[in-house]
What we know:
The protein is of the alpha+beta class. It folds into 2 domains: 2-94 and 235-245, Phosphorylase Kinase, domain 1 (2-Layer Sandwich), CATH 3.30.200; 96-216, D-amino Acid Aminotransferase, Chain A, domain 1 (2-Layer Sandwich), CATH 3.30.470.20. The protein is built from 6 helices and 14 strands.
Amino acid sequence: MDFLKPRYMPMNRRRRIYEGKAKILYEGPEPGTLIQHFKDDATAFNAKKHEVVDGKGVLNNRISEYIFQHLNDIGVPTHFIRRLNMREQLIREVEIVPLEVVVRNVAAGSLSTRLGIEEGTQLPRSIIEFYYKNDALNDPMVSEEHITAFGWATPQEIDDIMSLAIRVNDFLSGLFLGVGIRLVDFKMECGRLWENEMVRIVLADEISPDSCRLWDIKSNDKLDKDRFRRDMGGLVEAYSEVARRLGILSESDNPPPTAGPSLVKH
Length: 266
């Protein structure tokens, strides 16, 4: 397939398709592809809190690449094709379903606040929640009734999304457990991939410490974006620790935040 070996075009000559809080999408080198660029911006509370953190985008690009490639390898459908460079990935163009899908294994964040459950409580089973992607409304939580009534997804698509969420959760839980990290919860997004007349639901966006809550199994140290949300500091160091445990950063590397991470070449 030709699009697996794209011609590379400098960023300033590509057409920008979309810019979000943490990523930019550019026109891809072949029809049906996009280039996903990871920024260093850190945001929380729907961008009410915002900083630029040197090296974050590089780490998220590599961690997300690692996870999506492994998901592709076990047959989970995703938009990911391959990484292009330190900050960019080649992805398939999809129509994003306007939902954030949150899978929770341990009580934390808004679930603890909403239901008065102590943070860190193991849930009786994994819980899947849906939030309507709308920054102006602060991404409100919605039910399957809302989703089907307003046409955001069909009942079959909801089934496909939930099936994907369970598979991704099983994979991520095992992956992180193997490197001494507890997967508390994570957010994922899905898209419709058009293949001729057929359309299927695939995993899109990214999976990184920006979109997961990751706690060290022994110490419960937070290795995710809560360090930024809660003014704990050490964001790049925490993300670097996740990358190191996954084998993306070499054990000897201890990059200062301003220098950007030194990454293992595979």
